[in-house]
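Why do we care about 3D structure at all? Because function follows from shape, and shape follows, mostly, from sequence. That is the central idea of this module. The next example makes it concrete: a single protein chain, its amino acid sequence, and then its structure expressed as tokens.
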Amino acid sequence: MKYLMTTAAALCASAAWAETPVLQVYTYDSFVADWGPGPVIEAAFEETCACDLQFVGAGDGAALLARIKLEGARSDADIVLGMDTNLVAAAKETGLFAPHSASADYALPITWADDTFVPFDFGYFAFVHNADVTPPANFRELADSDLKIAIQDPRSSTPGLGLLMWVKEAYGDEAPAIWADLSDNVLTVTKGWSESYGLFLEGEADMVLSYTTSPAYHLIAEEDATKAAAAFDEGHYMQVEVAGKLAGSDQPELADTFLAFMVGEGFQSVIPTTNWMYPAVTPAAGLPDGFDTLITPEKALLMSPEDAAAARDEALAEWRDALAQ
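And the structure:
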């Protein structure tokens, strides 16, 4: 009798588990790290959704699109979170994404009106250095210096691709010459952001491609004021990170619920001190102390998704040719 009751209880538990909807979200590795926003957001959303939210780390931001293209309509993912505006046009061309129903009062420096992708944070690319290093004021000064930089591969990393767009937008036809001059400064090209930032922290590189907000992490989380971002007078390229719902999702309503949650307080309030970016929607409490110490680019650079898609192959070829010399 005891065995029968135990078996019945197990069957009931299994049935309940089977009925729990699963929402699978592909994102970049740092998002799901113990120190990233993923664990906190997962717990917060599951309190409201009666579901199982599963974040799946899939490399760096640009690698997400490559994986979705490979998997196609057979993908188990319901949402892809972590691409940016440089990849939006290419993502739409796949036909794998569906329109969303989310809306919010965005705090973005640009007007947002995209029916397929929803922004969740933004920032500005910058080279981070130790405060005792005199930084260059632009790419030309960087190229003329002996400083060694760690950057990310634009084929797998959104910061790496953002750097190509930054140089291209700032210099146009002069971009190949800028890359030729910078090639001697490039210590290494890593697959993703985490690897290159780690090399910088270990003292292997003088500067690392990151964000103007990166010093906030050291200041707030570590009480360390020894890191700074170099202000470049050409301006700084902006990154807007987005999420999109896959058309093949078997949980389309739950996916829409998550995207609406993503632009709400429970998600946005976590972003500044876990993803160390500016939230797409300003939290009720505002930005944390320490963000007011960050540099503010005098000029923000950003290509439209269409222009970024059109410039990508040429910019990639210029970068590859310069570093191959």
